[in-house]
Amino acid sequence: MPNSRSNGGKELDMKQSWILFLAAALGLSAADDLKKPLVLASQGSFFVGGESKSYTTPSPNPQAPAITGDITINQMYVQFQTPVGGERHTPVVMVHGCCLSSKTWETTPDGRIGWNEYFVRKGRPTYLADQVSRARSGFDGAKINAVRSGAVPPSQLPNVLTASHQTAWSVFRFGPKFGQAFPDGQFPIEAVDELYKQMIPDLNSLLPSPNPTWTNMAALAVKLHGAVLIGHSESGFFPEQAALIDPSGVKGIVSIEMPCATNLTASQLSTLAKIPTLVMFGDHLGDVQGGIANWMTSFESCNTFVKQVAGAGGDAQMMYLPKMGIKGNSHMLMQDRNNLQLADLILEWIDKRVEAKKTSRK
Amino acid sequence: MPNSRSNGGKELDMKQSWILFLAAALGLSAADDLKKPLVLASQGSFFVGGESKSYTTPSPNPQAPAITGDITINQMYVQFQTPVGGERHTPVVMVHGCCLSSKTWETTPDGRIGWNEYFVRKGRPTYLADQVSRARSGFDGAKINAVRSGAVPPSQLPNVLTASHQTAWSVFRFGPKFGQAFPDGQFPIEAVDELYKQMIPDLNSLLPSPNPTWTNMAALAVKLHGAVLIGHSESGFFPEQAALIDPSGVKGIVSIEMPCATNLTASQLSTLAKIPTLVMFGDHLGDVQGGIANWMTSFESCNTFVKQVAGAGGDAQMMYLPKMGIKGNSHMLMQDRNNLQLADLILEWIDKRVEAKKTSRK
């Protein structure tokens, strides 16, 4: 894989096998104790996509000519970890939602293990991508400077989506109204201030169409020789969008809490029907007063979407947690107190619906 | 440590000791082969600092009143890894430079191991911080939206520092002019396009004074019960700035390629003189045609600074690589082909000047 360190997992030598054997003999293999050392075959970071763009900036001296050069835009930053033996599993790619970064999947606001490390401990090569125009992927700052210099009017500035604490409380369904939590809520509300620190400006309004994150996710799946794509909220339907651009690397789709498209063509549904798909929704979808999100409508759209994919011969499943007896989950369910129980549901789904099929085809 | 996973390294039990012993017996302990598995006691991410700010945004409906809420600003995102046995060493904090993120310290543009993982493999608890207003730390988007709504004039927009490929080539000293590399250059110039993808807009012009990154670095050092702070370029003098705010946690300072302050008061120099300080500069400081950086001037200012600290009784050292027979290093020396040789110089300096002193004091 270019621009990343080689996967040592594929070069397991006898010594490493011995270590694994001995670790198992000493009772360290099950890794149910999450405080035990984490053993990685490799880790690193790289970019997917990106293109050069000519860029003109006013000179610091108003009498001097403008300075012209090239910048790179639309690249997607990806950070990964591969456990020893990870080549036995399909890689998993996680993409965060609005006003957030890959921090979403890491240490929870109250300091527990995040899905990123948990998936690695469960043997999965795990990739975290910062959306294009966010965090370490950067954004195209040219338009802001063009307005600053007077070359274009302020109306051409991007809408910098800045979600407030109050918006987060309602959209993320922490309680019926700001400052009041659901009694059975799973979000670690005592640490909500740490979640607020994760919330950063969203500049997706700067992006061209199709969203380069979709294209880059499809390219990443190809580069990995197959991957399960996980999206959440703003990015919840990105795995499907990536597959509609190029399905060849997309071996499974996990879509968590978002509006679903229900107007796909028969050809598009046929493409998606070839990929096992899991949709997951938490609790209290209709229990928040006011707010800008309508989760019941999103939920219904996804129920329709799941039926449409199934109708096209696909393996699509709605996992509506309250119906399974799992109560109180917020929109930020990967950070909820029962986050590892939910991760286990996804891991089991990958084992049965993605990897078992791959094996049975051999 | 709040908001991060507990340090399993302090809870080494017999089983883990056995694993380490067996790994050593099988020849895996020296870790000179960087492809061997990486064993971590813990990893995670958290924020330092951050404060609430009331924020007003125009309603999507022009007839409706503006929406008011709170956002969090000035927080600093930190990602860390602790090796097994890491409690034997002083933690190391790395902070990136202008128009870059913590990606600086990770996998190099040509896919080799970065300083972050190398320091961990050398036993150091290693912390990467995204500067406040950059990458996963986010930025205060309120002013951009205020201009967009017409509430304030475009002149109040931040200067979005967007470094072009051409600027990078000269400032980072890849060669005498754009597209032409130094024959003895250490930067992996064949992979320069991957470096360009790391370059993201710099919004430090939005920051209050003192820069919250300085305050947060000082607070992080306290939180870690002592740390070596490493800065580079824009952040090269940040360790000193952090120590001038609160020196209590700063056990060592590594400043790489930046202008140094030479007008510090006797009181300030006295504070810094209590902290071992290493300054490092690469090659070809005066060999680039044009460009906005004057590296010879920066180098001279740091020579003066080192003398001033030494004059105040401090242990300050200038490591000018060409004088040591190490030729061809660029400004991005942590990504250069000989990056691990340079890391070893820093590790050895920490052992002798920071940790040996700590031990001898006991």
General description of the model:
The structure is a homodimer of 362-residue chains. Chain A is an alpha/beta fold and 362 residues long. Chain A contains ten helices and eight strands. Chain A has helices spanning 14-25, 115-121, 142-148, 165-171, 192-198, 212-223, 238-245, 266-272, 295-311, 339-361, and strands at residues 38-57, 67-83, 92-95, 126-129, 227-232, 250-256, 277-281, 316-320. In chain A, strands 1-2-4-3-5-6-7-8 form an eight-stranded mixed β-sheet, with helices on both faces. In chain A, helix 6 (212-223) crosses helix 7. The longest helix of chain A has 23 residues, at 339-361. Chain A is globular, with a radius of gyration of 22 Å. Chain A starts with 13 loop residues before the first helix and ends with a helix. The model of chain A is unreliable at 1-13 and 27-31 (pLDDT under 50).
The total of beta strands of chain A comes to 8
Oligomer: homodimer
Shape verdict of chain A: globular
Measured between the Cα atoms of the first and last residue of chain A, the distance is: 24 Å
H-E order of chain A: HEEEHEHHHHEHEHEHEH
Task: Kindly report the greatest chain-chain contact and the residue count on each side.
Answer: A-B, 88 and 88 residues
Helix content of chain A: 25-40%
Strand fraction of chain A equals: 15-25%
Characterize the main sheet of chain A: 8 strands, mixed
Strand order of the largest sheet of chain A: 1-2-4-3-5-6-7-8
Structural class of chain A: alpha/beta
Count of helical stretches of chain A: 10
Low-pLDDT segments of chain A: 1-13, 27-31
User: What is the radius of gyration of chain A?
Assistant: 22 Å
- Average pLDDT taken over every residue of chain A: 91
